[in-house]
Design goal:
This protein is of the alpha+beta class and 187 residues long. 25% of the residues lie in helices and 32% in strands. Helix 2 crosses helix 3.
Length: 187
């Protein structure tokens, strides 16, 4: 299981990023169905929480602070996500460590369920709720971690800094003692 970071530039010198969670399986164990009802067997799923906006409207970091976007959860394959990003972006992968098979299963199911439950009923916010806070809220609700939130580490909050997503994401994984290091990029 991985937490993935896709960096993008906001303005000169300031990088933001999109965070999502990927679970890789040993074989094509999962069947995904698209909106047309077509199915495909895949060996991984990526859970992503995103700012929903009209087609051909780019994400705007500043507008995201004022409840201009709905927040939606998506489940896709790693291949689909890589194709969506194209060659312009690198998807960094950080392996989750120190979690049992049962905890990895719990986290995978919880992320998919959270994605489903999210629907389009809430608003995305650049600071919270956003792609990163939704992933960390899911992690922090795991049975093995939920009693440690606030005591052993702080809940994840997006920072306004030159690196508001990737650096704090890596540090938050380390704080939770589940950081397994950077792995090969998604492609």
């Amino acid at each position: 299981m991985y937490v993935q970071v896709v960096r993008f530039s906001i303005v000169s010198g300031v990088t933001a990023g999109h965070v999502q969670m990927r679970t890789k399986f040993s074989d094509n164990a999962v069947t995904l169905k698209n909106s047309k009802g077509e199915t495909k067997k895949v060996n991984d799923v990526v859970v992503s929480f995103e700012a929903a906006r009209p087609e051909n409207v780019s994400y705007n970091f500043a507008l995201g602070v004022a409840n201009n976007y709905a927040i939606v959860g998506r489940v896709a394959s790693g291949e689909q996500r890589a194709n969506e990003y194209g060659d312009d972006y690198t998807t960094e992968q950080y392996k989750l460590a120190n979690l049992s098979e049962a905890e990895l299963q719990e986290l995978t199911v919880a992320a998919i369920q959270r994605s489903h439950d999210k629907g389009t009923s809430g608003f995305y916010n650049t600071l919270k709720p956003n792609c990163t806070t939704e992933i960390f809220d899911t992690i922090d609700e795991m049975d093995s971690l939920k009693d440690k939130v606030g005591r052993d580490f702080k809940p994840f909050l997006t920072e306004i800094s030159p690196d508001p997503v990737a650096g704090p994401t890596i540090q938050a994984l380390k704080d939770r003692e589940i950081f397994g290091g950077r792995q090969a990029d998604l492609k």
